Amino acid sequence: MQIPTIKNSKPAATMNLFFDGLFIFAIGCFIIAKKLHENKDHLLKIDSSTIINLMLNLIKKNTQNITQNIKRDPMMYVLLFLAGSFFFLYYLTDPARPAGIFRGFLGFRDIAQYPLGWFGYYDQGEYLKIARTLASFNFSELNTTYSYGLGYPLVAVPALWLGFNTDPFVFFNFATYLFTVYAVYRVAKELLSPFAGMLAGFATLFASPLIVYTAQPWNSSVCLFGMSGILLVMLKKNVNWRHGLIVGFLAGWAFAARYIDVIWFVPLAAASIYRGSFKQWMKVVAFMIVGILLWVLPVLYSHYKIFGSPLKTPYVNHIGLNDDSNDQQLNAYKLERIPNAAVGMFLGPRLAGAADNDRGWFITMFWVLTAIPGAIIIFRRSERRLFWGTFITVTIVAYLFYLSFRASSPISLKYGVLHYFKMFWPGLIILSVAFFDRILQKQVINKPKNLKKSKLPR
Question: What ranges do the domains of the chain cover?
């Protein structure tokens, strides 16, 4: 495998200065254009003091709006601040991170055992090669670099254009992590209670391995972003064509990134926009289909140009270690693999008879088993029974599907194989929190009203 050549990125201070300057420049241009439009006959009266005053007023107004929003929902901003800080800390200290991103941070040299970091791995290295091909518009290179779906490498293209070559995926990964925390908090809060929202937010941050599989580049981050968006659309009391287009776009994006995941996204997207009227639902579904086709048609055309058939994906070149079959063929998936893979990946490799230094999913997220009684509670309380029924069904089928895949084995944990499942974690967290929220409510309801305060000896 040809390891991609990576140039050093700019120092963090230069990055911050660039974006600050770009922001101020944009505000200045907007104000000047607005003032010119309002004073067409008095252009010469504009001076620097006028522009500065307008900028100060604009900043003051935006500061007031932000302050009001914080007062309205302080917990949301606390969670987002913690999420941003935690992501930065985890990313900064990750031993697999490429070197040279934070040169001179706190006076230390930014070194790594392997300078390429995770881009020396196969998946991440291939993502980067595809992104560089797309960023250079040298599409003829796709004949050699088109090894994964284009949906994830595309998110790195703007960062590459701006010169952030060492890890151009970090900006999207950071946004995805914050967006997921926000979506989980918002859905749990509005569907259940403010306590449930707070608990779901903190569970996502500190009681799940989500940060591990989001800070490191994985194409499943597109699916995580899409699932968070679909959960937010599900909350809407009324939906229109825009919501259909949004969920369709997210489902199509999942197809462009990971192909098979569109099977889970389409029913979830359709269920998220159902509001009791089949006739109205069909109108919105029509726009959902349009949103899907915005991704599917260009991707199928790229398959035709590169692989000779729109039905051939890059996975036809992913050949198995023990046979000549590829990952797009059915024999890459076998039901008999499921029990051993489930024990090894969810409980631990040692219990499945494999030598692996990693731990199973339940070690960091054992409490997610409370999603089982939580699902019953959601069904009894929620108006979105169709969505949650679809989510539970799709999650079970998707987990069984991925457990049957030949790459899912007890010895695959150290290679990050759990990232296949992370798109379903936000929904599972919400179901689990429903159980704890119900316990708290029962405790409050059953609490004696005339309970006297106990007097403790001093």
Answer: 120-442
